[in-house]
Amino acid sequence: MKKLLIITCLFFGGIAVSQAQQTSPVWPGCEDSKDVSACFNKKLAQHVRENYKYPMEGNEYIRGKVTISFDVTEEGKVVVKSVEGPEPAVNDAARKMIEAIPDMKPGTLNGRPDTRNFTVPFNF
Question: Which residues form the TonB C-terminal domain (predicted)?
């Protein structure tokens, strides 16, 4: 019985130790935030409001829904992986907006820089 208890303790102790420790990328200005993920989301929303340039066709703004997939690389750079939406002009404007995100401190996995993927839908 003692052997079973010891084996069980070692097994669960090993699982606890082997769990990966992850951190989110840190947007400039979020370094001292208690909730880095919430600060990241807030800064992303602010970036969208301040940097999205609505494309025009004639005198009309072109609107649409876009889903953007991007990575924050191990170097903290933002790389757009895909932009999906029915309006090419909106897709292009959304791509440019995401590419303008500033470099940031990358996320980590077990203390080492790690690429993180984000997929975000936008309605413009």
Answer: 60-124
96, HSE (Cβ side, Cα atoms, 13 Å): 12
Q: pTM for this one?
A: 0.79
* Sign of the CA dihedral with 115 first, then 119, 120, and 124 last: positive
Q: How far apart are the first and last CA of the chain?
A: 64
- Give the domain ranges of the chain: 27-123
**Sign of the CA dihedral 30, 33, 34, 38?**
negative
Looking up tokens 């097994």 gives 11
SS3 content of the chain, % helix, strand, coil (to 5): 35, 30, 35
pLDDT tens-digit map of 43-55: 999 999 999 998 9
